[in-house]
Write a structure and sequence with these properties.
Elements lengths: L18 H26 L5 H12 L1 H7 L12 H22 L2 H16 L13 H21 L7 H19 L3 H6 L5 H29 L4 H14 L2 H8 L1 H33 L1
Helix pairs in contact: 1-2, 1-3, 1-6, 1-12, 2-4, 3-4, 3-5, 5-6, 6-7, 7-9, 9-10, 10-12, 11-12
Length: 287
């Protein structure tokens, strides 16, 4: 007598965190809001026309981010084949680029081209800036913080009074990237991913991130005096939260580090909003 066939048992392993989902969420939603906001701040530096400002905000809210979020990535991503996705991204970007190009000066257009090329080179095969230690964090930070400079140049802002504020922003973006990579260092080593996090290791990555946060917090006060103190106070919260990575690592390992990064990610919203409002008020008073 034959026994009944055994039913296959499917075991689902639930991971404590899902990096792929986080990447999609941050790039498609949070980072788009960030880039649109900083472009608007840069555009307000010399009263950019409303139509150009609106088009730029829409562009940096989504199409711009697709250059690095999905272009040239092999295989299927967001349930779309590679060639279809690349074609869609190009078609979506071209109208905005053409309009902004007609409105901008030679310097503004050149800067926009540089930012677009940086975004494209993040994933291009045999180049892939995100896979080159050092260039991964530098190129991504410039790509994400660049819209502010582009907005300022496009609006025709005079002088470099905005440079310390932008450098502070750039350092926060770079530190956020390092904090995001902390819980993935072990996995990156297993798959032979050669990024800045793997080269530095967990301890040095955390030290560099903390140093960047501290420098970013102090720079506004050093550059702008008492006017920069509110920015310093707000940015010091990044140092406080990032410091929690030490005990959380000992308690929960990679999952603990991931929770610290999530806390930093959510901290971006209130701190970014308050800094944006404060910067807008200061710009309105000086222009």
């Amino acid at each position: 007598m034959k026994s009944a066939p055994k039913k296959a048992v499917v075991i689902k392993k639930a991971s404590r965190f899902v990096p792929a989902e986080v990447v999609i969420e941050t790039i498609m939603v949070g980072i788009g809001l960030f880039e649109a906001a900083i472009f608007a701040l840069g555009g307000l530096a010399a009263r950019l026309p409303v139509a150009t400002l609106a088009v730029g905000i829409i562009y940096f809210l989504l199409p711009y981010n697709l250059l690095t979020a999905g272009f040239a990535l092999p295989g299927r991503f967001l349930h779309v084949a590679t060639w279809q996705r690349n074609l869609a991204i190009i078609v979506l970007n071209v109208p905005f680029i053409m309009y902004l190009g007609l409105q901008g000066s030679l310097a503004a257009n050149g800067l926009l081209v540089v930012l677009i090329v940086l975004g494209l080179l993040m994933n291009v095969p045999k180049i892939g800036l995100r896979n080159i230690p050092g260039l991964d964090v530098i190129s991504l930070s410039l790509f994400l913080a660049g819209p502010f400079v582009y907005g300022a140049v496009l609006s025709g802002a005079e002088g470099l009074w905005w440079l310390p504020a932008w450098l502070s922003m750039l350092m926060v973006v770079a530190a956020n990237y390092l904090m995001y990579k902390l819980p993935m260092i072990g996995f990156d080593r297993q798959v032979h991913y050669d990024g800045i996090d793997v080269r530095l290791g967990l301890e040095y990555s955390l030290v560099v991130a903390m140093g960047l946060y501290m420098a970013a917090a102090l720079l506004p006060t050093i550059a702008y005096g008492w006017t920069g103190v509110p920015a310093t106070v707000l940015l010091l919260w990044y140092v406080v939260v990032a410091f929690q990575a030490l005990p959380f690592r000992l308690i929960a390992g990679a999952a603990g580090l991931y929770r610290v990064w999530r806390a930093i990610w959510w901290l971006n919203y209130p701190v970014g909003a308050l800094l944006a409002v404060y910067a807008a008020v200061l710009i309105a008073r000086t222009t």
